[in-house]
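Translate structure to sequence.
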């Protein structure tokens, strides 16, 4: 499988050619450019500065294979912010869950936009003969956001998900399973009429089982442009959760199972039947769903998703880190990311330890 290096919380790749702005200006690749600036008087050989030691941002075991990255050239570090340490911490927050991934910051440069810096990173892995790719992004003057072509605007900094985590702790009020505490929050932004959200529920069920310390929240984000019954379903869901939190999940499961019946002819009855199946009074929930308080609550849930930059459903926020619940994301990888983010935030997951390898006793007859 070809490895793709991503910064985006939406996992969109933004690979670029391994050239920097300065290199483009001179026509010379960075690893082939001498440290001295062009046009400077020639210096005697003995006066040349010693080569700068390459920045080793991720440990490379020299016994396994040679360092795959070109030496760092000071010429390509013309911006004072962000620092290499901050970029490294940012990339570790994004990529650190992958123990095979390695990288090195090769440039932090000023740009024509005042205060905007360009960062170029070389990325590879620890496998023998691994190829080196490059990724670039821009950092805003306030140092709080990174911008990449295919990734859009994402949080930047040593702890890029901290603000989003606090926002979810304060405002994610959907029905929940698991722990009552909010130290580890897995917030699913979903739409009850969304087919992919239906498919994602098996993954959510596994996360509830595998991470006992997690508060697993269903936060409604009805996409009304494409799913006409999504808003009413979300309103029903809000009323149910407010009356009896645990009743929401059998309601949601029944709605997901009968998505095909969410039509103008049968949609209202489908929702009412799901309420009855969850053990509540369908008439009372219908009245609640039409109230102004419920409309405000559903509107607040939609705004929360928008404030979090959620652009698709289903989307999972792991203590503020957004991960699309895509069929292409292996569950074991998702588990690894949850465990890694919890460790970064200093909280326990309650997950059972991985089983020790089974040892076999060699036969004396062999």
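Result:
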């Amino acid at each position: 499988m070809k490895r793709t290096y991503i910064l985006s919380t939406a996992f969109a790749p933004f690979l670029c050619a391994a050239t920097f702005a300065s290199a483009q200006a001179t026509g010379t690749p960075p690893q082939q450019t001498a440290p001295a600036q062009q046009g400077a008087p020639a210096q005697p050989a003995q006066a040349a500065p010693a080569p700068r030691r390459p920045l080793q941002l991720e440990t490379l075991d020299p016994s396994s294979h040679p360092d795959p990255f070109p030496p760092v050239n000071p010429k390509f570090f013309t911006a004072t912010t962000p620092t290499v340490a901050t970029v490294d911490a940012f990339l570790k927050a994004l990529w650190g869950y992958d123990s095979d991934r390695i990288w090195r910051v090769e440039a932090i440069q000023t740009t024509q936009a005042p205060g905007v810096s360009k960062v170029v990173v070389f990325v590879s892995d620890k496998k023998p003969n691994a190829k080196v790719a490059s990724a670039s992004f821009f950092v805003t003057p306030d140092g709080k956001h990174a911008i990449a072509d295919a990734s859009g605007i994402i949080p930047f900094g040593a702890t890029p998900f901290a603000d989003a985590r606090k926002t979810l702790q304060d405002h994610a009020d959907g029905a929940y399973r698991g722990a009552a505490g909010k130290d580890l929050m897995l917030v699913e932004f979903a739409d009850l009429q969304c087919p992919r959200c239906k498919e994602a529920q098996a993954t959510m069920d596994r996360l509830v089982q595998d991470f006992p310390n997690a508060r697993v929240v269903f936060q409604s984000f009805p996409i009304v442009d494409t799913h006409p019954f999504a808003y009413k379903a979300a309103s029903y869901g809000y009323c149910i959760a407010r009356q009896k939190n645990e009743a929401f999940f059998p309601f949601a499961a029944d709605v997901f199972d009968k998505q095909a019946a969410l039509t103008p002819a049968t949609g209202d009855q489908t929702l009412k039947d799901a309420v009855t199946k969850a053990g509540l009074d369908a008439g009372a929930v219908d009245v609640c769903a039409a109230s102004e308080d419920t409309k405000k609550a559903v509107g607040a849930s939609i705004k929360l998703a928008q404030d979090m930059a959620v652009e698709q459903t289903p989307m999972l926020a792991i203590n503020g880190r957004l991960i699309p619940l895509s069929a292409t994301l292996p569950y074991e990888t998702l588990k690894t990311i949850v465990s890694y983010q919890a460790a970064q935030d200093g909280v326990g997951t309650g997950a059972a330890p991985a089983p020790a390898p089974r040892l076999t006793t060699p036969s004396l007859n062999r």
